[in-house]
Amino acid sequence: MSSATTSSTVGRQHLWSVDEHLDDILSTVHPLDPIELQLLDAQGCVLVEDVTVPVSLPPFDNSSMDGYAVRVTDVAGASEEYPAVLTVIGDVAAGQAEQPTVGPGQAARIMTGAPLPPGAEAVVPVEWTDGGLGEGPVSSMPAHSTAPEGASGEVRVHRPAEARAHVRAQGSDVQAGDRALTTGTVLGPPQIALLAAIGRGTVRVRPRPRVVVVSTGSELIQPGEQLSQGQIFDSNSFALTAAARDAGAIAYRVGAVADDAETLRSTIEDQLIRADLVVTTGGVSVGAYDVVKEALSSIGDPDEENGIGAGSGVEFRKLAMQPGKPQGFGSVGPDHTPLLALPGNPVSSYVSFELFVRPAIRALMGLPESSVQRPTTRAVLTTDKALTSPEGRRQFLRGAYDAEAGEVAPVGGSGSHLIAALAHADALIVVPEDVTAVEPGTEVDVVLLG
Fold it and tell me: Which residues, at least 6 apart from 4, have a Cβ–Cβ distance to it below 8 Å?
């Protein structure tokens, strides 16, 4: 990343490409240090250790059905006309430490998940029996609390069972010593379930990045309030906070900050205690009230010992892209917290997030390079007329992608303020810098947002 002292000259002399800007970000942003977290707190985090299974799953042979644990020879040839009549010697419930031993001509009533008792070789489902009622096949067992006599007496079995029928074998899921999960795994609900099942209460991961989103503009008010002349609702901070969470971050939204440089500096300084990454939107262009640029472009004074400028540097650039030409990137505060300053127009802001902020978040998470950026594909452009694009700029147009047909269609116009169409887009159509017109039927690159 270029130093802050060169930002004014570099900003004027060099038009950054999209790839140069992204490479600069990713070469600066490094994965967060690993920590030990409780399982539910680790959801969405990246594992930094291989996890070995300490005990087999299941840890013992157990029943996959509610029914009766039997010996195979005792039910051989059983039918509804000539049922096998067995003596019920007791119940085996899930979690029960001691089980009765099943001998010749005997059966134990067993519940799903309960250990297979000694002597038993198979389980016959209750639906294959009379449930001890002396009548035809039943569909379920009566509750033990209301019919304790079901644990004794006789049961008629109407079908034979092969050895190990309806028995979940010890270690049939995973064996002790197996590798359950590997380094780099993102922990979702199934992975959390596996960790819990093998007895892990905590796990070592890279934490989810904490992202603070700050929007700027005196014209912005909170949704739900009454609009006055010249005001608009603050949508950017909501969109970017939601996008940060979608990317895997813990995101905090800060209410819109008025166009005052000192207020913005103070707000960011207050937020650094809970930020691994700061994202601002608005105030990065060339207007007289572009406060982000005013507040941050001069920070990094080596004589400044406190505040967000201490040891920091934020550079404001012009990128060869549309929308999203003005961008800022650097670090703030004593911990050199990365800061990305995005344009204020809604589409520019969102496109910039997808191209630059999302990869930064994913890099902080420690995800592999292949998972940092959104996936891209090729699709045939379907449109009534050619799309135009400014020469020397990489254009990103909102699109609706049809995976089955391999086609993509533009959604809405190219204006960076046209937010309504953004809600109906699931892709970005990419028009390269050296292309000024794209005819219908042309194959184009597509960034998939869904």
Answer: 297, 298, 299, 300, 312, 313, 314, 315, 330
